[in-house]
Amino acid sequence: MSIPTIDQPASAGRAEPRTSILSLRGASKSFGAVAALTDIDLEVAAGEVVAIVGDNGAGKSTLVKVLSGVHLPDAGTITFESNQVTIPTPTAALDLGIATVFQDLALCDNLNVINNLFLGRELRPGRLDEVAMEVRSWELLRQLSAKIPSVRIPIAALSGGQRQTVAIARSLVGNPKVIILDEPTAALGVAQTAEVLNLVERLRERGLGVIMISHNMADVQAVADRVVVLRLGRNNGEFTVGAVSPEEIIAAITGATDNAVTRRTAQIDLRTASSLDKEVTS
Ligand SMILES: Nc1ncnc2c1ncn2[C@@H]1O[C@H](COP(=O)(O)OP(=O)(O)OP(=O)(O)O)[C@@H](O)[C@H]1O
Ligand SMILES: [Mg+2]
Fold first, then answer.
1. How many CB atoms lie within 10 A of CB 274?
2. Hey, what domains does the chain have and what are their CATH numbers?
3. pLDDT of 167-221, one tens digit each?
4. Which of 40, 60, 74 best tests ligand 1's pocket when mutated (most atoms within 8 Å of CB)?
């Protein structure tokens, strides 16, 4: 089987096609009469950050759930490391190497950082090997250059950014190849957002494929390589960051025809039409 690749436009500054780790083709998912996803394509390569943006109800979370084994798609194919796969359960996603940090983080406030990192995955089943888990916890946090004061304090004592860091570190425990982050900077302040975006950079440096859902154009522009726009459950544009303005992305999100590009095109059309009129009347 040939390895699917993502062709980078010359403007991206990376001429080499990169090997896709995860790709979704023609995915659809309906809930009764609601078509949450229709014929969606998505691709992520190793060492690439792909942002998924779209308005409320655009289908972003449903797409995340299809990739993380929460929902089975009604149609479409998923390819992971060149093999066609099905992802029937969240465990199947983790076993493949797709880890998801959901928006609610699902951390246990009363447990400390170590216990949260290894919840349900204690190094020796049936026995908590505290020392080994503490060492591994610091290793994980160091890989992310994370600023956590202690791994023995309860999650409740951490800031929002630090909690997000712990949730991302936890997703790394199984050595995944793809990480999906659902709104990782929502509800964070400026400094904490910068910290989490730095962490996304670390994930990319480590060669992971990162899929990041976001509502924030500044975050997208700061950290993503590509932006995939969803609108009403369909693909509505794909852009290389650096070669697109925030306005163009927003126009794709809202489906607005009244943006700078379409206005300019309309003016040119009008000018052409009026010069044709003159030719006809003269
Ligand atoms: N379990 C479900 N049952 C019924 N309808 C659902 C379910 N999950 C999602 N939907 C519907 O599918 C559509 C897409 O929802 P989804 O949550 O994927 O959007 P989203 O892009 O994540 O939006 P938001 O930005 O608000 O989180 C919506 O119309 C939503 O009501
Ligand atoms: Mg959502």
1. 10
2. 5-244 (3.40.50.300)
3. 888 888 889 999 999 988 887 788 888 888 998 999 999 999 999 999 888 899 9
4. 60
